[in-house]
Write a structure and sequence with these properties.
- It is a single chain.
- The protein is an alpha+beta fold.
- It has one domain (3-75): Alpha-Beta Plaits.
- The chain contains two helices and four strands.
- A four-stranded antiparallel β-sheet has the order 2-3-1-4, covered by helices on one side.
- It starts with a strand and ends in a 20-residue tail after the last strand.
- 13% of the residues are buried.
Amino acid sequence: MSKVIIVCYDISNNKVRTQFSKFLEKYGVRVQFSVFEIQNSKRVLSIVKNGIESRFKRKFDQSDSIYIFTTNHDKTIRYGSASLLDDDLILL
């Protein structure tokens, strides 16, 4: 059973949004414009949360939002191009 983190965001500032997406690209794959799928481990989750706290939180506007969902990969139902993602994908 593979666990993943889903990070969804809505960031109004273009520069901050670009910086944030580049940060997330180090740890996962973009599955939608503002949604990343990241292989879950305590270490990776800690890195992502600490990065948000230390690098981005102060840059967010009051209307910006970030969601981090943890889930089991075997319970994910995908359609369309999402069904082409490899469940065994290992990200370093």
